[in-house]
Amino acid sequence: MLTAITGINWGDEGKGRMVDLISQEYDIVARYQGGNNAGHTVKNERGKFVLNLLPSGILRPNVVCVMGNGMVIDPHHLDGEINNLREQGISITPDNLKISDRATITMPYHVDQDGLEEARLAKTGAQFGSTKRGIAYTYGDKYMKKTLRMGDLLHLDDSVKKRLVTMVDSKNLVMEGSYHSAPISVDEMWAWLEKYAAIFKDYICDVGQYLADADAAGKKVLFEAQLGALRDIDFGIYPYTTSSNVIGAYAPIGAGIPGHKLTNSIGVMKAYSSCVGDGPFVTELAMTEEEKHALREAGHEYGAATGRPRRVGPIDLVASHYGVFCQGCDEVALTLLDVLDYMEKIPMVTGYKLTDGTITKRFPMGEALDTAQPVVEYLPGWHCDITAARKWEDLPQEARDYVEYLEKAIGCKITYISVGAEREAYIHHNV
């Protein structure tokens, strides 16, 4: 069984929380794209954990976690993340963490270049809102065939060093010539690679074969995505996207088994909207600054990777319907419904008004999206604490009406409803 858990909006939908919950039914959890430019925050009986690179399944002792070939991996960050989790009592060994030998390495100069370019763009207000973790520059070099892969750490020989020299020479043309930055040292980069080769050599393997063998043996595999459909490099709000394919269809490819097909796709959607970074975000126009502040505080909407405040707004049903389409969702998990407990009435963006006066329910791109205005409708709020609810019948009628409205609007059944941060604080619905 191959299941993908993906975001259907801009990211930060609560995927890590859902992976942590659902992974109890799976043998393997695999990340298939992205790097440490986003974070999953998970609360369970063992504490609060912030994950950037590691799959959320690492918090379950009986789950094997895989970091797939579609990822870009900063070994320095990964080492720190692993050590932090170990300090919190999480066991991480080559038995429960396997890193693809085909995954691309994020080098220190990728991180440096990301920060330099974002600073340059910021002078004219053209910045992308990058997390400055080097992700775009790693993927860019990957497609120019100017990167090393994790498997290269297993044999740091003369041929690898020759490639490194070529890459550093090319990068220095940019770092010195364009940014007037200090040149990159080949010797320093080589020492850096040697350091992390010693740390990760026992974790690196052919994860594609491992996953194929597991699937053939009837093991259950859960694919974990980073960010959401609207940040996908092809189908998102380009150019304000991430640098990889986050959609579920890419999961088997980015994990290492490109010839396999998904059994099930679970999309994750917040009960309201949030967004980190720049780009069009129509729903935030539907609230006053005071209303957005109240929602941000109620939902603790600050980035797990960066700590910066997230942009917020009502749930955007135009964007969500599009996200469900992109992810090919068979079912949806609705998270953070309890955050809306304080509202007397619940706003929803049900359409976009375009500059010609027409109203559309289809998610547009380009200038139409940039200039769209939200069409807002309201449902009565429940204005009570729902965090103790564990069955559909425990929810107040107004909360049930809200969920059923969302189901019709996005065209997909909602099977999980999260009503709190704790692992058991959810309702299994429509089963």
Secondary structure topology:
Elements: E1 2-7, H1 15-22, E2 28-31, E3 40-44, E4 47-51, E5 64-67, E6 72-73, H2 75-87, E7 97-100, E8 104-105, H3 108-122, H4 135-143, H5 158-177, H6 186-200, E9 204-205, H7 207-216, E10 221-228, H8 251-255, E11 264-270, E12 273-275, H9 289-299, E13 311-313, E14 315-316, H10 317-327, E15 331-335, E16 345-353, E17 359-360, H11 367-371, E18 373-380, H12 397-410, E19 414-418, E20 426-428
Parallel strand pairs: 1-10, 1-11, 2-5, 2-10, 5-7, 6-8, 7-9, 11-15, 14-16, 15-19
Antiparallel strand pairs: 3-4, 12-13, 16-17, 16-18, 19-20
Helix pairs in contact: 3-4
Describe what this molecule looks like in 3D.
- The protein has helices at 15-22, 75-87, 108-122, 135-143, 158-177, 186-200, 207-216, 251-255, 289-299, 317-327, 367-371, 397-410, and strands spanning 2-7, 28-31, 40-44, 47-51, 64-67, 72-73, 97-100, 104-105, 204-205, 221-228, 264-270, 273-275, 311-313, 315-316, 331-335, 345-353, 359-360, 373-380, 414-418, 426-428.
- It is an alpha/beta fold and 431 residues long.
- Strands 9-7-5-2-10-1-11-15-19-20 form a 10-stranded mixed beta sheet, sandwiched between helices.
- Strand 16 and strand 17 (359-360) form a beta hairpin.
- Helix 3 packs across helix 4.
- It is globular and about 70 Å long.
- It starts with a strand and ends with a strand.
- The mean pLDDT is 94.
